[in-house]
Amino acid sequence: MDDVEELKKLKARYFRALDSKDWKAYGNVFAEDCVVDLTRAGGPRIEGREAFRAYGSSLTIVQSVHHGHNPEIELTSPDTATGVWCLEDYNIWEDGHQNHGWGHYLETYVKLDGLWYIQNMALSYLRIDTECPQPALIAGKDRTGHLHGQNPAAGNWN
Amino acid sequence: MDDVEELKKLKARYFRALDSKDWKAYGNVFAEDCVVDLTRAGGPRIEGREAFRAYGSSLTIVQSVHHGHNPEIELTSPDTATGVWCLEDYNIWEDGHQNHGWGHYLETYVKLDGLWYIQNMALSYLRIDTECPQPALIAGKDRTGHLHGQNPAAGNWN
Amino acid sequence: MDDVEELKKLKARYFRALDSKDWKAYGNVFAEDCVVDLTRAGGPRIEGREAFRAYGSSLTIVQSVHHGHNPEIELTSPDTATGVWCLEDYNIWEDGHQNHGWGHYLETYVKLDGLWYIQNMALSYLRIDTECPQPALIAGKDRTGHLHGQNPAAGNWN
What we know:
6-stranded mixed β-sheet; homotrimer; alpha+beta; Nuclear Transport Factor 2, Chain: A
C-alpha cells in the first residue's frame, strides 16, 4: 500500500463528497473521535464524526467547489501521519451571495484496520473575497428576502 | 513503473497540450478507439482519437486554462485503470466572451505496449460562470460581430 | 525515498513559503547557485539563492496565493530531475491593485546530500487578468496615492 497516495485519495473523497453533498461519504472520511477546528476560519470547533457530519449537512450552500493543492504529507508511524494542504473554495448561497477563499488545512491522520481517516483538521484562510453579484431579493422564499430589505414593487412600505 | 504516477502525468500532458493548442500531442494521450462523452457538459459524444483530435483543434478559443485536481485513480488490472478528476477551466473566446467552469472527469485508461492512454472520458460541470467583460463588437473580423449585432458606426442599417 | 514525491513536496514548500512570506524557508528550496528566469513573465533573470531570496522578500504584495498543478517530473539521473508545473497565482497589492495569472514553470532539480533543491526555474504566463476593484487612493500612505492621483477631499489643489 502506498500510504501517501491513499491519504491523497482520502482527501480527494472528502472534497468530492462535500461538493456533491454526499454527507454519508463525507462523514466516513473522518475518525469517529475526530476534532475539526474551524475557529481560525470564523467557525466552530467540533468533536466527533457524527457532530461534524451534521454540521456539514446543515450548510445551506447551493453550490460549492473545494479543491486541495500541494499536499505535504509525512508518515509519523505506520498508523499515523500529518498533512498540510492548500485550499481554494468557491461557495454560492441560495440568495446569490458568494465566497471565494484561499487557505490551508493542517491535518493529522490515523490508520484503523488498514484504512486511513482524518483525525484532526484545522482550517485557516489567507483571503476570502465576498461578492453578491445578483443582489438578492427573493421575498417570501424561506424569508431570505427579509435579510436584504423589502422589494419596493412588492407592496407599500406602511 | 509507478502506474498511478504515469496516469497523473498522462492527464497532465492532456491539460498542457489543450492549453498550448498542441493538437498532435492532445490526440496522442487518447487510445485510438477512445470514447469522449461531453453530453453532460452540453457537447457531443465522440468516438475515436482522430475524431476527437479534430473536434479539439476546431475550437476557436483564443486562450484557455484547464487544471486537474484531486485524482482518485484505481488500478483495475495490470493494463486497465479508472480515474476521477476535478476540473477548473477558464476559456476566453476571441469576442471577449468567457466561461469559467468547475466539474469532474470520469475516466478509464488502458495500457498498450507499456504506455497508458485515456480510453473513456466523460465530463460534467458543477457550475459554469459566464461573462462578457468587454461586450464585443468586432465588426468585420471573421464575421464575429454579426453574432452580436451590428456596429452603428460601421455604416447604415438599411 | 520516493524522489518524485519529495520533489512535489519541495515545490509545495516553495508555494507555502511564498504565500506565508517566510523568506528564509523560501530561499532554502533553491540550490545556492540556482538560476531563476522571469524574463518571459516580464521580470528579471536572477542568479544565486541569496539574490533571489532578496528579490522575493522585497515584494510589496500584501496577500498572495500561488498553487501548482499537474506536475510532470522526470528523473534524469539519481541526483537530477526536470519538472513542468502549471501555476495559478493571485496577488493583491496594498493599493488594491490585483493580478490573477495562469502559467507554467519549467524547472530542473538537483539532489545534494540527500535533499532536493530547485536548480533552474523559468516562469511564463498563458494569461494575466488585472483588476483594481477598489480604485485606490491612499494619500499619504507610503506615497501610494501619488501613483493614482490626489484625493479631492483631502485638501485644496494648490
